[in-house]
Amino acid sequence: MTQTGSLFSDSFEVLPGMTLLPGYASSSQLRPLITRLCEASPVRQMLTQRGQKIQVHMTNCGSAGWVSDSKGYRYTPIDPLTGTAWPTMPQPFIELANRAADLCGFPNFEPDACLINRYEPGLQMGAHQDRNEQDFTQPIVSVSLGIPARFFVLGLERKGTSTPVDLSDGDVVVFGGPARLVYHGVRKLKPAHDPIWGPYRWNLTFRKAM
Ligand code: MD3
Ligand code: FE
């Protein structure tokens, strides 16, 4: 690991294009916003194209939201659960993602989609690429809240050696450039308790989808 040591005092480039900003986000600031968003568009288990339940509970905010159903993965302007638009992305979310991206060399990042994932102990997310977005020159900004998780990164193929990265409450990771299309996932979460979030891990991923 090489310390970037430039703009953000405590940031690390884990792999080319993947920078960790430890503790950059604040759970106490974000919790009321997430609570409000989930009152409007609740977290739910989506189905895969093959009809399997995705274990992680998900929702979105922004002008587009990531969905999975019998038609596959895509972004939609309407929440299929409520039949209305996804909640507007709160300004503090936009600012957090924009500042984190800027610190990592991606100026003017304007996310239009924020996928909100809620994990509980025992859940994991298998290796996948995020490639449903229109413009791969735009980064993805990930914000981890609540109980810790071990994240892993592969390369541009699903096989090979994985790099583990432990993510705790408040950690922000920016994936861009050569890291934008890497395969990645989350190892099975261990039981834990967070003073703000209880037994859960929440992850926000900010994207330029459209
Ligand atoms: C690297 N979420 O929602 S965040 C996802 O912790 C997703 O919930 C995981 O993977 C989670 O798609 C990991 C880190 C992440 C997110 C998107 C990426 C890493 C990425 C897109 C491209 C490359
Ligand atoms: Fe992903």
What can you see in these coordinates?
- With 210 residues, the chain is mainly beta.
- The protein has one domain (2-207): Jelly Rolls, CATH 2.60.120.590.
- Helices cover 13% and strands 32% of the residues.
- The protein is built from 2 helices and 14 strands.
- The strands form 3 sheets. An 8-stranded antiparallel sheet has the order 1-2-3-12-9-14-7-4, with helices on one face. A 4-stranded antiparallel sheet has the order 8-13-10-11, with no helix packed on it. A two-stranded antiparallel sheet has the order 5-6.
- The chain is globular and about 40 Å long.
- The chain starts with a strand and ends with a strand.
- The model has no long low-confidence stretch (mean pLDDT 96).
- The structure holds N-(carboxycarbonyl)-S-(naphthalen-2-ylmethyl)-L-cysteine (MD3) and fe (iii) ion.
- Residues 128, 130, 184 line the site of fe (iii) ion.
